[in-house]
Write a sequence for this structure.
């Protein structure tokens, strides 16, 4: 697993290069010569953080209860079907 270092200018000029480099390991992105960001493949990030992405995990994460979600009510006009015809 290699580490690639790119300046923010290099990243902006060739994002494809950064994406390809991230396959082999993390890509350090520098601003004014100092490391500022790290680009990882999504799978590598999940492995490092131990996170799994599924609906049950997303609904159980902290802070979800604080999100306002009030879907509109659905008004259905339900009538009994006439099967005598």
């Amino acid at each position: 697993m290699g580490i690639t270092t790119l300046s923010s200018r290099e990243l902006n000029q060739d994002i494809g290069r950064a994406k390809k480099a991230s396959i082999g390991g993390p890509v350090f992105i520098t601003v004014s010569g100092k490391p500022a960001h790290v680009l990882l493949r999504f799978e590598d990030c999940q492995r490092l953080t131990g996170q799994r992405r599924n609906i049950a995990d997303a609904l159980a994460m902290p802070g979800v209860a604080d999100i306002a979600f009030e879907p509109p009510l659905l008004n259905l006009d339900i009538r009994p079907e006439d099967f005598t015809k």
